[in-house]
Specification:
single chain; 189 residues; globular
């Protein structure tokens, strides 16, 4: 068997459509970017209906984005949040977004993180997480979000990570419903 290198990159459209120099000052602007990423991923059929972005918390500077790439790159770990973490850490050349010389960072995601992504949140170094659609919304499409409990969030909050829930939920749910209408692949259900 030939070993294949693991290569993670954005779909081509990301470089064409993301305004990398834009400063996203408000929570609404930041979440709308995450939802737009999920929507484009669905419309262009490059992955699941999930998008995420990493921002500098205070400045609103966009550090990295992530789109669900599980099916496109044949890798079960490539959820939107995981791709955003990987790309942000590669860009900053740091295994943590909480380095002593770094500003505070936050994750903004179109859907509540699954068990894997929530676990990676702790290790990523972000200080804040905002999500739109809920795990129940994803479950209606038969996505299995894994073992996430109220205690999971309590654990993160005890470690100084702020959680913002259900922010612009209806807009994110509309993307999930569009994915369902297009008969998108449910890869972990």
């Amino acid at each position: 068997m030939t070993r294949q290198p693991v290569h993670i990159d954005y779909p081509d459209w990301v470089r064409e459509t993301i305004a990398w120099d834009t400063v996203y000052r408000t929570d609404e602007e930041r979440m709308r970017l995450a939802i737009a990423l999920s929507s484009e991923n669905v419309e262009r059929e490059t992955g699941g209906p999930f998008g995420a972005a990493i921002f500098e918390s205070d400045t609103g500077r966009l550090v990295a984005v992530g789109t669900n790439s599980v099916v496109r790159l044949n890798n079960c770990t490539l959820h939107g949040e995981m791709v955003a973490f990987m790309m942000a850490q590669a860009r900053l050349q740091s295994f943590t977004l909480k380095g002593s010389q770094l500003p505070a960072h936050e994750l903004v995601t179109s859907c509540e993180p699954c068990a894997m992504c929530l676990g990676a949140t702790l290790w990523s170094g972000v200080r804040r997480v905002s999500y739109a659609a809920t795990r129940e919304d994803a479950a209606r499409l038969h996505f299995d979000e894994g073992p996430v409990f109220p205690a999971s969030y309590h654990y993160l909050e005890e470690r100084g990570i702020t959680i913002v829930r259900d922010f612009l939920r209806d807009e994110a749910v509309a993307v999930l419903e569009r994915y369902r209408a297009k008969s998108g692949t449910i890869y972990n259900g």
